């Protein structure tokens, strides 16, 4: 379970987020929607512990118990900006970013291979990143966020610049993670993508919570 309580964020005396609260259960996929400047990326950065809220609390539960360990061990974050080592190939990027998982390279390589296969990256596994298309780089970016097999996954605009095939691959990965009981939060301007992947929806407007609840036909008119 993910419990978000009264999250506020103020930057230079400007209220970016005001009193955001919701609860997600195991297997929930939350889509965060809203216009530019609504606070979507700020919220997902707070949820993934990249930045701290000004006020409020976030509680992460694993197997029904409040998690008190290192958050990095249970959180996977996929940023909107692609951050890869251009001079390295896909395999070496995954091994580098996954190096904290285990001292055993074989374990890391196995995880890297599994996520690369799931995202359709094996044909270019040993291709230098600088030679990849923008869409393929996006998929590598996602693979890095998922390599630790995290319980909580936060994805900021994960399908920007990807083609239809890559988007369907990403939708499949999200569906598979949901079936495993992971809790996933996604920001995206593509409402169709959110429809295909999310069962919960949070709508932000000027940093305020306009709607939180089930993502169904009735709520589409509010987006």
From TrEMBL:
Pfam families: ABC_tran. SUPFAM superfamilies: P-loop containing nucleoside triphosphate hydrolases. The keyword Protease does not apply. The keyword ATP-binding applies. Keywords: ATP-binding, Nucleotide-binding, Transport. GO terms for molecular function: ATP binding; ATP hydrolysis activity. Residues 2-223 form the ABC transporter domain. Belongs to the ABC transporter superfamily. This is ABC-2 type transport system ATP-binding protein.
